[in-house]
Amino acid sequence: MVDFKKSVIYQIYPKSFYDSDGDGLGDLKGVTEKLDYIRQLGADYIWLTPFFVSPQKDNGYDVEDYYHIDPRYGTMEDLEELSREAGKRGISLMLDMVFNHTSDRHEWFRKALAGNPEYKDFYIFKKGKKPGVPPTNWESKFGGSAWEYVEQFDEYYLHLFDVSQPDLNWDNPKVRRRIQDVVKFWMGKGIKGFRFDVVNLISKGEFRDDLEGDGRRFYTDGPNIHKYLQELNEATFGTDAEIITVGEMSSTSLENCYRYASEDGKELSMVFSFHHLKVDFMGNEKWVMVPFDFCKLKHILFEWQTHMAEHHAWNAVFWCNHDQPRVVSRFGDTKEYWKESAKMLATVIHCMRGTPYIYQGEELGMTNPGFHDISQYRDVESINHFRILQEKGLTRENAYQILAIHSRDNSRTPMQWSDQKNGGFSQAEPWIEVNDNCAYINAETEEKDEDSIFHYYQKLITLRKKYDIVGYGDFEALDEMHPSVLAYRRNYRDQKLLVINNFYGKEVTWEADESLKDYTCILSNYEHHMMDGKRIRLKPYEALVLYREA
After folding, report:
1. Which one of 86, 106, 358, 512 is at 20 to 30 Å from 11 when CA atoms are compared?
2. Where is the chain membrane-spanning (predicted)?
């Protein structure tokens, strides 16, 4: 059985990773060409975001065909070669499965629109409350109504995301069997990991107006969600102890995640939750400009760490992915303390209880690109909200400022391989612009620099492999109300790990609840440390990992 508690997963957004054929788009052969880089970093799995046939309205999360690879990414032979070559390097592949919805160009939906009653029941069609009024007031996560009118039926179909992404009807057992067939197909190709996109939205509850919010309380962690996940587990990946799974859980609750990621193995190996990445939102609204709430960030991280451990459930721990801004731009300092803050943020996550995920370029300290014109954006959500923000009365300048902070395109700019043309990503014009700072933030430069962010990530991954306490220890929050320091202790058998992080660009004194004389510093982002008994003088964005055995 695979030990995912000591594993590290590297996420690749193929479109932006490496272009092997000079068309401006990353591809599967490009991933194969860079496998030695991932091996050098030390990752155990590669999570590939969707490369299936798709009209790309939502960058591949609108799947037209679950069984075939979009030609812009390559061929099935290319994927098989990638799997073989990764295996030679001790790396397994994790595929991203989008099962809450399909593309409106999927064969099932086209048959539904053609009036085939069997396939119409694969989706969620409802009558309006009255002419011209959708069934409910639910809002799409990409803006606007979550319902689209179909004239020939005089009905609406549900799309919690883009209008081109109709939601599947998981209450229909035929749908669930078809989904199981897809998972079995890819298991047959030797795939050893699955990430399930917004999977806690697949079971809808009551279809009625939400007088308190946008409707999410009626479709999140729905009434049959655990039944459907257990059924999927039993029929597919649960039959292979070598397969790991992770569920992306949108607006979920701790209580549900105890069950999703329980050690009993009936549902999933681990879960992604996003509450800690809403601390610079206003409520659930992300399209705002507010400073992040550090104490709230600590509280959420500590709460999930502590309670998931108490209930024997497992977290995926992360800052970045294809839907999130670059963390060093979000919570760090991209100017004076770029390197120190990027290393500190990595320390926070990689020493926690859970399986760490690294998003491509995070290990280099890649930053938000600072786009200043709507023509530079490609993300459907960002383009929609640029319009919506102005309709709400914001100026174009304010709308641009908000997109520069929160747009998903902040993480989708091409991987920065070198200081050459287009950051070494492609010889052609990339599908989205490369960040100008590729001149000094790039893999080629950082691989040569022993003090680089890249080498620091290597050291963090090595700690997880070397010290059992990192993989298996419990979690103890420390000094939760401290205004500048995020600190915690891990305990395992006769080992202790103390992780101390200054989250800000000013020196600060922190006092431990025990003497530190028996601890050894096994990792830090500074060369010299100021420790005296219980007191530590922390430099700007300093991170310390202290270890001792009883």
Report:
1. 106
2. none
Assess whether 197 carries a catalytic annotation: yes
CA dihedral 365, 370, 371, 377 (to 10 degrees): 40
DSSP conformation letters of 268-316: -SEEE--GGGGTTSBTTB-SS-----HHHHHHHHHHHHHHHHHTTB-BE
Choice among 197, 323, 362, 409 that is catalytic: 197
Domain architecture of the chain: domains with CATH: 107-158 (3.90.400.10), 472-549 (2.60.40.1180)
State which amino acid sits at residue 527: E
118 carries an active-site annotation:
no
Three-state secondary structure call for residue 213: coil
Position 550 pLDDT exceeds 80:
no
Quick one: DSSP state of residue 85? H
Q: At what angle do helices 173-188 and 225-235 cross, to 10 degrees?
A: 40
Closest CA to 27 of 19, 39, 36, 37: 19
**Helical pair 338-350 and 453-466, crossing angle rounded to 10 deg:** 20
Catalytic residue among 248, 267, 333, 381: 248
Q: Give the position of tokens 């992080």.
A: 501
Q: What is the pLDDT of residues 218-271, one digit of tens each?
A: 999 999 999 999 999 999 999 999 999 999 999 999 999 999 999 999 999 999
